[in-house]
Amino acid sequence: MLFWCCENYLYTLYTMANPNQEIKYTKIFINNQFVDAVSGKTFPTVNPSTGKKLADIAEGDKADVELAVKAAKTAFVRTSTWRQMDASARGALLWKLSTLMERDANVLASLESLDNGKPFPNAMYDVQGSIKTFRYYAGLADKVGGDTIPSDGPHFTYTRKEPVGVVGQIIPWNYPLAMLAWKWGPALAAGCTIVMKPAEQTPLTALYMAALSKEAGFPDGVINVVPGYGPTAGGAISSHPEIRKVAFTGSVEVGKIIMAAAATSNLKKVSLELGGKSPLVICEDANVDQAAMIAYMAVFENQGQCCIAATRTFVHESIYDQFVQKASELAKARKVGNPFTEGTVHGPQIDDTQYKKILGYIEVGQKEGAKLVTGGKTVGNEGYFIEPTIFSNVTDDMTIAKEEIFGPVQSIIKYRTLDEAIERANNTSFGLAAGIVTNDINKALTFSHAVEAGSVWVNTYLAVVNQAPFGGYKQSGIGRELGKDSLEGYLETKSVSIRLPAKI
């Protein structure tokens, strides 16, 4: 993020980092207690910077999900402490959780860097952003209300907003802590109880947050965290007949599996934040240096492991060569290395599977005729590091222009007119985000209204904020995260009509 460009602040941050951070929590969290898996099984979580094991984590499956759902159901009964709690008190608990995160920010950021591989300043940015997310929903908790309705006949009619009940939440590995906050915040503000499965690659911060939730004072069973694998723990959540909503962030392929399981089990509510192949259009009137920097951040942030990454960079033909040269300079200067080393802005890919997948796409790009401008190689002798990679002369029919790579690979594509760019930008099954760089307000508005994407950014990118809804068109998802919109997915609307003696 551009926020981290202040060198003095970066130096201060790196002095807070702890590459030897103790890992306290490795068990399943159910009913405010850390417990072993029913099966007794564990699985390793690995440091992607070294490829070496960090810890063995209790491996939850269907039996553990059953226990977690039972605890969450008990916490949700009408007479429970949680259900009887004032909405403002729920908000106070969310705020208390955020203050504990503030106290333990260095621990959380260190765990995130160890488990995910992102540079420590970026991990700290995620911690601070997650604190703000919880505080946003803490403020919304007592502002969820219905309407009074001027209905026909002698009736007093109003609506109530009530929590859905037990919700299942399955989060990804690219932003582990932020995705947890995006899910917990609205669910808890609405009054639901939670069974969460963190990604098997990155369970450490979710388990630490479980401990903080107990310290904050959340009642037994309100928050449950079951680490494990997708087909077992995740499958048990999405198909459980007593979970009333499932929220998932991840790939389109898994999203379809979850949606099918939700349909065949109990028609539970579903919200899906899925993949993207986002376009960023650079107009001929743009400042090339500024545009190249925006595009650089848009694609290489988080090692390219970002659902909204602008991996399709459309550049007007009149400035194409100039832009490619500037983009290459930025990519070559990007420091790749250990996330705890000062100056590092680019860490490893998450694991060996993703590492090999990205290298495979780079190979395919060259075979299909794209020009490898820079990068494309591995870095170092351990861990999963790949150079920031740029392709030019990319055409729309190439694999790297069509499929989500989820890695540090930028495809720079030439276009002639804005109408052409819009049509080509929309020619995808995805629709998560899009951007345009221009000094012409008419071009900005035309593009913003015509492009099929849930978020559109003008002369910026990655401008995700807690107050604005976030989600996708087409196969990029269903429903919205963040903002007031996300609360609706955790609420039911009840209409109540009371007969009056006569019209008043």
Automatic annotation (TrEMBL):
PANTHER family: ALDEHYDE DEHYDROGENASE-RELATED (PTHR11699). Gene3D superfamilies: Aldehyde Dehydrogenase, Chain A, domain 1, Aldehyde Dehydrogenase, Chain A, domain 2. The active site is at 273. Belongs to the aldehyde dehydrogenase family. This is Aldehyde dehydrogenase domain-containing protein. The keyword Oxidoreductase applies. It comes from Anopheles merus. The keyword Oxidoreductase applies.
